[in-house]
Amino acid sequence: MLRNILEVLMESTPREIDATRLEKGLCGMDEVVAVHELHIWAITVGKVLLACHVKIKRDADADMVLDKVIEYIRREYNISHVTIQIERE
User: Fold this and answer.
1) Is the Cα dihedral 82, 84, 67, 7 positive or negative?
2) pLDDT at 80
3) Rounded CA gap, 26 and 3, in Å?
């Protein structure tokens, strides 16, 4: 319990989330070119937030990609507080 409290206070990435795997999963989407500024942290035990920039192909539908990215993060990592900034190539 003390470890969980310290992780929240230090705003570290929760141990159960593999940020590298998450980033690779996003980059594996057809329309996604790159992911950067990926930040994952817990504000309380069990409440995780994620923010990142997602670079997409010039001709991609930004709204569709945003929906796919958010759905992937929610489904695979159970993170419901997500902020994504879409950038074009």
Assistant:
1) negative
2) 86
3) 29
CATH number at residue 24: 3.30.70.1350
> Beta strands of the chain (E only): which ranges?
32-44, 47-56, 81-88
**How many domains are there within the chain?**
1
d(CA 87, CA 66): 11
Using the structure block, give the residue that is written with the tokens 């945003």. Answer: 66
Contacts of 41 (CB under 8 A, 6+ apart): 11, 12, 13, 14, 48, 49
Could you tell me the residue range of the domain that residue 35 belongs to?
A: 1-88
pLDDT tens digits, residue range 11-54?
556 778 999 999 999 999 999 999 999 999 888 777 899 999 99
Q: Is the distance from CB of 84 to CB of 54 less than 8 angstroms?
A: yes
